[in-house]
Model the fold of this input.
Amino acid sequence: MYLYKHTQRSKILIFIIIFVLLFMIFLMYRFGFNWIGAVVFVLMVIALYVFNSLTITVYTERVCASFGPGLIRRIIPFRMIKSAEKVRNKWYYGFGIHLIPGGQMYNVAGYDAIELKLTNGRVFRIGTDEPDKLLQVIQSQLD
Done:
């Protein structure tokens, strides 16, 4: 059973990918079929499916952050978390899965995040549009 579950959609990513897909359909219609265009089209559809949302689930023993249907996810047991705090991402950290100074970040929209400081010295940031609520649930399990 989970204590917290929230899914955040990436409206800007969905808009950009759909725009690119429509543009590619136009190009294939205008200039004819192209294998490179077809491969890029398929990759964009896969990216839309996998990265359209970020679901954060907090269980009694772990935190799970998963993209889209859950093909890409990160599970962190509470025994691996030293502390958690609310942070604000820099604009150039971007969206998606990124390496940041000292660790890794999962984010689909916005700049608010929860930074988990891990026992191995690394950090893991989870982008969220409910930072206060998520932080409260995580800290209640750390205490």
About this structure: The chain has a mean pLDDT of 94. The first strand starts at residue 2 and ends at 9. The two ends are 19 Å apart (CA to CA). The beta strands are 2-9, 53-59, 62-67, 72-77, 81-88, 96-100, 103-107, 112-118, 123-127.
